[in-house]
Amino acid sequence: MSASGEDWQAAGFGLYVHWPFCQSKCPYCDFNSHVAEHIDQKRWADALSREVERAGALTGRRKLDTVFFGGGTPSLMAPETVAQVLDTVRATLPLANDWEVTLEANPTSVEAGRFAAYRQAGVNRISLGVQSLNDGDLRRLGRLHSAAEARAAFDIARREFDRVSFDLIYARQDQSLDAWCEELDRALEMAIDHLSLYQLTIEPGTAFGARAARGGLRGLPDEDLSADMYDLTVERCAEAGLELYEVSNFARSGAICKHNMLYWSAGDYAGVGAGAHGRLTLKGQRHATVCPSAPGAWLKKAEQEADAFEEFAPLSGQEAAEEYLLMGLRVTQGISMSRLLAMGADTDLPNRVDRMVEAGMLACEGDTLRTTHQGRALLNAVLRELLAG
Ligand SMILES: C[S@@+](CC[C@H](N)C(=O)[O-])C[C@H]1O[C@@H](n2cnc3c(N)ncnc32)[C@H](O)[C@@H]1O
Ligand code: SF4
């Protein structure tokens, strides 16, 4: 376990801060997000800061590479709240010189007005949830902003930050390949150094999930059209200089999101906030942490108890190896076979890997195992085969 423990150190250390509130709930979204009438920002800032201090005490002043404010909608955080949390981070943990601090933002004008203050607080990267560049599609996705507002927010973001990414959701209802191609080209004209391009997933427990179960969500692309849209996306982005580095993420050289890369390469991260998950290697043993999802329950725990964890459990070698496989095969750089085996993967895994290599889904070069283009398009099926030990 100690050799793999050193690898976890090498993959870096991050802090994830979850802000669980949104102005309204989008019909496709199953993230831990809640609509609240009133939020006591100072109370939340104090509770989050307390949790950051506890994470620092637990991890023994480990050097921090990244911070990610995710949600929900972190751009609903008052700039003072973000500043207080980041001040606590600076006072608690030593920082890497090139630490990356990302904040997820929704493109309404009110929120874009806060970008300068976020930068002053220490945020150095914005990830903007544009979702579509067409007003009709934004309405169907239940978004509160227009395409013009999204562009305006993006322009403000690029004035304030060197690093700006935005998200689009494609493979939407009644979207043709040509329509996506045209929208993607417009997005690529805007893009700076990073794009996240997700195919619409119908999640159980969401409004879209319920509508789909009733047969009411018509016009979604079939598998062939979705695959064509994906191929087109990868090609067009590459032509524009944004290389695929994870199933849905594209970046110019040097602009990958370090924080997400840390998840995908099984690095350690502390998770604070409602519903936040963490992975911490303590004395050579990897642990999984989970906080309560309900905002009120989390706040009470953070304020009144010694920590806000609902779960704090050691991961077995087999569990850690499966997680590394699940996450690591999403990224184009792939995973290290020797690290996977050192973590405690079952002894039949190399045989299952060989079968997937023969089927053209995986490629093995030296110690590196990665998905082929075909394997990435069928990633869920490939992972099912590999995990069927
Ligand atoms: C935490 S969410 C959103 C951040 C921010 N609240 C927003 O909506 O702009 C991160 C991203 O996941 C993507 N996403 C969420 N649910 C999805 C789904 N069901 N299918 C595809 N993409 C989804 C969206 O692109 C979204 O921007
Ligand atoms: S997509 Fe973003 S704004 Fe919409 S409900 Fe999910 S987290 Fe909130």
UniProtKB/TrEMBL annotation:
Gene3D superfamilies: Aldolase class I. SUPFAM superfamilies: Radical SAM enzymes. It is found in: Cytoplasm. Its cofactor is [4Fe-4S] cluster. InterPro entries: Aldolase_TIM, Coproporphyrinogen-III_oxidase, Elp3/MiaA/NifB-like_rSAM, HemN_C, HemW-like, rSAM, rSAM_sf. Residues 7-243 form the Radical SAM core domain. It comes from the Bacteria. Keywords: 4Fe-4S, Chaperone, Cytoplasm, Heme, Iron, Iron-sulfur, Metal-binding, S-adenosyl-L-methionine. Probably acts as a heme chaperone, transferring heme to an unknown acceptor. Binds one molecule of heme per monomer, possibly covalently. Binds 1 [4Fe-4S] cluster. The cluster is coordinated with 3 cysteines and an exchangeable S-adenosyl-L-methionine. Belongs to the anaerobic coproporphyrinogen-III oxidase family. HemW subfamily. This is Heme chaperone HemW.
